[in-house]
Design goal:
heterodimer; A: alpha+beta; five-stranded mixed beta sheet; two-stranded antiparallel ribbon; elongated; B: three-stranded antiparallel beta sheet; three-stranded antiparallel beta sheet; 13 helices; 6 strands; globular
C-alpha cells in the first residue's frame, strides 16, 4: 500500500544522530529522533526529491509518566507525491523544548499551540505560543496523565453576581471504574 | 500585516462567538480599515469539551455516543473511524457485507454533510430559498457564486496541510478513498472530483460534483452488496473468560449481546478516512488496557480553518462570511 522504498532511503542516508531508530510495521513507518533534530529532519523530508513529505498531518503529544523522558511528541507526515506516511517521534520532558517546524510547515502553528496547551511541551521561539482550546486563566495541561478527568474547577453563571464564576469542583460522588471486560461475569480476582 | 494607506485609526471588530453566520461558536477578531480586512485572528476553544481526555477513560463502545458530537453533520464518518482504529490495531476482519453497508452509510453521510454545507452557505450569501430547494435553484447559485472569492494555490494548500474539498479545489487530486482505499472503495467505479482554480467557486463545484459521485457509489454498492453476516461473530466472544457459557454456540446468535469489549494491545497506529470535510485521522496508542492510552483526533476543520486569516486579508468585511462558508467548518470538530 505505502511506497516503502523512500523510507528505506531516508534511513540509509540520514545521519544516525538525527534518526536513532526506525521502525516499519503494518501500522505505519516510524522514526525516532532527539529534541534538537525535528527541524532539520523535517526540512530534509520535505524538500528532498526522494521523500517530498510535504503535508504535516498533525502534531500530537503523548504522556508516558513511567518513562524517563515523559512526553512523546509525534509529527505525523504525509507525502502526496509518493502516497506514503511517516511518523517522527521525539521524546521530551517538562523542561526540554522541541524545535518548532512552523517555517517549513505553516500548519504546524496551531498544532504546536495545541501540544503546549494539552501536554505542556513547548517549542523554542514559537511566535504565538498561547493556549488554544482551554479557557482564559486555565491552569495545568489536561492531557497529562496526572490531570484528573473532572478537572479542578467548575464554571457556571452566577445570577446574583451577573457573571460567570469558576470555583473549585465539588463532586457528590467519586469517579468510579467498573470491570468492563465481562459485564455478565462475576469478577474472579475479586 | 500591511499598514493601511488611507487612515491610521483602525477599527477592531469582534465577530462571534455568538453570531448567526459564524457556524457555531467561532470568534474572529477582525481589524478593519473602513471595510477592508487588514487582519483577522480566529479564537477557538468555545466548544472545547476535552473529548480526547474523555476517551482515555472510556472503552470504545462507551465512547461511541461521544464521537457523533465532533462533527454533528457527518456523524457516520466519525463512528466509522472510531471502530476502524481498534479494528486495525487488533487486526479484526469484518465481513464483506458490513464493508458495503459502511460504504453506503459513509457516502450518504457525505451527501448529507455537503447538503448541509450548501444550504447554510447559500443563506450566508443572502439566499434563503436554496436552503429548501438546493438542487432546483442551482443556476441561481452559480450566479451568486461569481461574487465570492478567497483564493489559494495548490502549493499553498499543501503547505497549510489542507485536505478534502479544500485541497481538491486547488488542483491536487488527492482523495483517500482513491489513493489509500479503506473499506471497499476500490471495488467501485468513480472519479476523484477536482478543480484547479482554488477559489470559493471551485470548492463549491467540487462539493456538488462529489455528491453526484457519492450517489454513483451508493447505487453500485446497493446493487453489488453481498449476503452473509454483517458482523464478525468470532470477535464477539469474551476474550478473557474463555470457557464462559456465554461463548457457546447458541448464545452467539442472540439478538441482545454484550458489547464486544477487548483490550487494546500495546501498539500505536494512525488511521484515516476521507470525511466530507477532509482527512479525518485517529492516532491511537494502546496500552494493554480496555481504555485507549492516547486517542488523538485529527479533525480536518481545525486545519482547514487555519488558512482563513490568509484568505480574508484585503477582502471586504462582508466577504468573510462567504469565504468562511466555503471552507465548511464545524466547531464541534475544531474544538473537540
Amino acid at each position: 500500500m505505502d511506497n516503502q522504498s523512500i523510507f528505506q532511503y531516508s534511513w540509509e542516508i540520514l545521519p544516525k544522530k538525527w534518526v536513532h531508530k526506525m521502525k516499519r510495521s503494518e501500522h505505519g513507518n516510524r522514526s525516532y529522533t532527539n529534541t534538537d533534530y525535528p527541524f532539520p529532519l523535517l526540512c530534509f523530508l520535505k524538500w528532498h526529491t526522494y521523500t517530498r513529505v510535504q503535508v504535516l498531518i498533525d502534531i500530537c503529544g503523548v504522556d508516558h509518566p513511567s518513562r524517563k523522558r515523559r512526553f512523546e511528541v509525534v509529527h505525523n507526515l504525509l507525502s502526496t507525491r509518493y502516497n506514503s506516511r511517516i511518523r517522527v517521534q521525539t521524546s521530551a520532558d517538562k523542561v526540554t523544548r522541541i524545535s518548532p517546524v512552523v517555517s517549513p510547515f505553516p500548519s504546524a502553528d496551531r498544532w504546536e499551540r495545541e501540544v503546549w496547551d494539552m501536554s505542556g511541551v513547548s517549542s523554542i521561539n514559537h511566535l504565538d505560543l498561547r493556549r488554544i482550546s482551554t479557557d482564559y486563566g486555565f491552569e495545568g495541561h489536561p492531557l497529562r496523565k496526572d490531570f484528573p478527568l473532572s478537572g479542578y474547577v467548575e464554571v457556571w453563571y452566577d445570577d446574583p453576581e451577573k457573571r460567570v464564576v469558576s470555583e473549585p469542583i465539588e463532586m457528590t460522588q467519586e469517579f468510579r471504574y467498573f470491570d468492563f471486560a465481562s459485564p455478565w461475569e462475576q469478577r474472579s480476582d475479586g | 500585516m500591511s499598514l493601511p494607506l488611507t487612515r491610521k485609526d483602525l477599527m477592531i471588530v469582534n465577530m462571534g462567538p455568538q453570531h448567526p453566520s459564524m457556524h457555531g461558536v467561532l470568534r474572529l477578531i477582525v481589524t478593519l480599515d473602513g471595510e477592508d480586512v487588514i487582519d483577522c485572528e480566529p479564537i477557538l476553544g468555545y466548544l472545547h469539551r476535552g473529548i480526547e481526555k474523555i476517551t482515555e477513560n472510556r472503552t470504545i463502545i462507551q465512547y461511541l455516543p461521544y464521537v457523533t458530537r465532533w462533527d454533528y453533520l457527518a456523524t457516520i464518518t466519525k463512528e466509522a473511524i472510531t471502530v476502524n482504529a481498534p479494528e486495525f490495531l487488533e487486526n479484526i476482519q469484518i465481513p464483506q457485507r458490513a464493508n458495503y453497508i459502511r460504504v453506503i452509510m459513509l457516502e450518504l453521510s457525505r451527501i448529507a454533510s455537503h447538503l448541509l454545507w450548501l444550504g447554510p452557505f447559500m443563506a450566508d450569501l443572502g439566499a434563503q430559498t436554496p436552503f429548501f430547494y438546493i438542487f432546483r435553484e442551482r443556476e441561481l447559485i452559480y450566479d451568486l457564486f461569481e461574487a465570492a472569492t478567497g483564493f489559494f494555490r495548490g502549493e499553498e494548500a499543501v503547505n497549510w496541510g489542507l485536505s478534502g474539498p479544500m485541497l481538491r479545489a486547488s488542483g491536487i487530486q488527492w482523495d483517500l478513498c482513491k489513493v489509500d482505499p479503506y473499506e471497499s472503495y476500490n471495488q467501485f467505479d468513480w472519479k476523484v472530483q477536482w478543480q484547479k482554480e482554488g477559489d470559493s467557486l471551485s470548492r463549491y463545484l467540487v462539493r456538488v460534483s462529489e455528491m453526484r459521485e457519492s450517489i454513483k457509489i451508493i447505487q453500485q454498492a446497493v446493487e453489488k452488496i453481498p449476503g452473509g453476516p454483517y458482523e464478525n461473530l468470532e470477535v464477539r466472544r469474551f476474550k478473557k473468560a474463555k470457557n464462559s457459557e456465554w461463548n457457546d454456540f447458541e448464545y452467539r446468535f442472540l439478538g441482545k449481546k454484550p458489547s464486544p469489549n477487548f483490550e487494546l494491545s500495546k501498539q500505536e497506529l494512525y488511521v484515516r478516512v476521507e470525511a466530507p470535510k477532509g482527512e479525518l485521522g485517529i492516532y491511537l496508542v494502546g496500552d494493554d488496557c480496555l481504555f485507549p492510552w492516547r486517542w488523538k483526533i485529527r479533525p480536518p476543520s481545525f486545519i482547514n480553518l487555519q488558512i482563513l486569516p490568509q484568505l480574508v486579508k484585503k477582502m471586504k468585511l462582508a466577504d468573510i462570511m462567504k469565504i468562511l462558508g466555503s471552507i465548511d467548518i464545524i466547531m464541534g470538530e475544531v474544538d473537540r
